[in-house]
Amino acid sequence: MVGARDPLFDELLDLERAGWDSLCKATGAEFYGELMLPDAVMVLANGMVMDRDTVVGALSASPPWRTYAISDARLIAVDDDNAVLVYTGTGYREGDEPAFVGAMSSVYHRADGRWKLALYQQTRMPD
């Protein structure tokens, strides 16, 4: 496991933040359409497993997040071209909806010199 101040940790955490930023700006469909590998999937807290095309369609129709927070991030470096970022993510939407808090993991694979998302998984944290 790799801790903070590691260049790979910083790079992937920046990429994860860029994804959340896109969700707040309602540009998540474009961002994740580019970031995800063609056969990548997202496993959501409600049990849905979505392929890249389904993710892009869902994000196109989803309201943006108001803001977010990432905490307790850590990196598992598998090898030079594969790594997992694990963290607690908190997302806030407009209105009275309570924050979504989940344990999140993103599996990245480096392809042609660029990090791509192979798998994203979230588990809702108990209140």
From TrEMBL:
It holds the Pfam family DUF4440. InterPro entries: DUF4440 (IPR027843), NTF2-like_dom_sf (IPR032710). Residues 13-117 form the DUF4440 domain. It comes from the Bacteria. This is DUF4440 domain-containing protein. It comes from Mycolicibacterium wolinskyi.
